[in-house]
């Protein structure tokens, strides 16, 4: 069975045509993308690297990594966002980027140890078995390569801010975007990474200030957080 939730794929597929509209439901992704791109590029300069973006959706991060000089592949199981990503690459003239509709586990069997950098951002909270995804990421990255992940912490604060606040009060995201039970504590994700043969390097928290309407990276991992890992040589 494919490690995907058909309802989740359909949900993002229905919104695919709005993916590159910075004032749409995907506004938060457009706002945080420069932060996560700078974080990745600061730890592992992307120019000339072979990069895989897992759960790429419409390609916001994939496209920006290619523009940093990486040879980027974005994969997803939702057809419509991938077509939007391909169309955007053509219209924007982005070079060194391609997209495929394939499960990460299938790509891991096809191309083990093939990528200098593997990213999986804002996806783990949408799949039935996140540990399976992380195992595949560990297989896909080259020895010495980097794996970057981001997801949502599971606690009362994250429930209040990421679901009640973001989806129902501020309406930054469509209601029902996230399911609290699928959030992952950093300790749980760290264990998945260790089980996949990855070594933890560092972490960052992503916070939002509703007054300034700005995101920032820092040490607060209570709600959104990012992990950087490496596969040992």
UniProtKB/TrEMBL annotation:
Enzyme Commission no: 2.1.1.222, 2.1.1.64
EC class name: transferase
Gene3D superfamilies: Vaccinia Virus protein VP39
Substrates-to-products reaction catalysed: a 3-(all-trans-polyprenyl)benzene-1,2-diol + S-adenosyl-L-methionine = a 2-methoxy-6-(all-trans-polyprenyl)phenol + S-adenosyl-L-homocysteine + H(+); a 3-demethylubiquinol + S-adenosyl-L-methionine = a ubiquinol + S-adenosyl-L-homocysteine + H(+)
BP GO annotations: methylation
Superkingdom of source: Bacteria
Gene Ontology MF terms: 2-polyprenyl-6-hydroxyphenol methylase activity; 3-demethylubiquinol 3-O-methyltransferase activity
Family to which this protein belongs: Belongs to the methyltransferase superfamily. UbiG/COQ3 family.
Summary of the function given for this chain in its UniProt record: O-methyltransferase that catalyzes the 2 O-methylation steps in the ubiquinone biosynthetic pathway.
Protein name: Ubiquinone biosynthesis O-methyltransferase
């Amino acid at each position: 069975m494919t490690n995907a939730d058909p309802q989740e794929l359909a949900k993002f597929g229905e919104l695919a045509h709005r993916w590159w509209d910075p004032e749409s439901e995907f506004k938060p992704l457009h706002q945080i993308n420069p932060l996560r791109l700078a974080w990745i590029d600061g730890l592992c300069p992307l120019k000339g690297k072979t990069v895989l973006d897992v759960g790429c959706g419409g390609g916001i991060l994939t496209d920006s990594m290619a523009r940093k000089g990486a040879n980027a592949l974005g994969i997803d199981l939702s057809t419509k966002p991938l077509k939007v990503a391909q169309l955007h690459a053509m219209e924007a003239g982005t070079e060194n980027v391609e997209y495929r509709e394939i499960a990460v586990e299938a790509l891991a069997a096809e191309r083990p140890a093939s990528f200098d950098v593997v990213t999986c951002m804002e996806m783990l909270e949408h799949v039935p078995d996140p540990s399976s995804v992380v195992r595949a990421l560990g297989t896909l990255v080259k020895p010495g390569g980097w794996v970057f992940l981001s997801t949502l912490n599971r606690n009362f604060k994250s429930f209040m801010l990421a679901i009640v606040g973001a989806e129902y009060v501020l309406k930054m995201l469509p209601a029902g975007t996230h399911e609290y039970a699928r959030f992952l504590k950093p300790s749980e994700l760290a264990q998945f990474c260790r089980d996949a043969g990855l070594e933890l390097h560092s972490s960052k928290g992503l916070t939002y200030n509703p007054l300034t309407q700005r995101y920032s990276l820092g040490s607060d991992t209570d709600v959104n957080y990012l992990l950087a890992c490496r596969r040992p040589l």
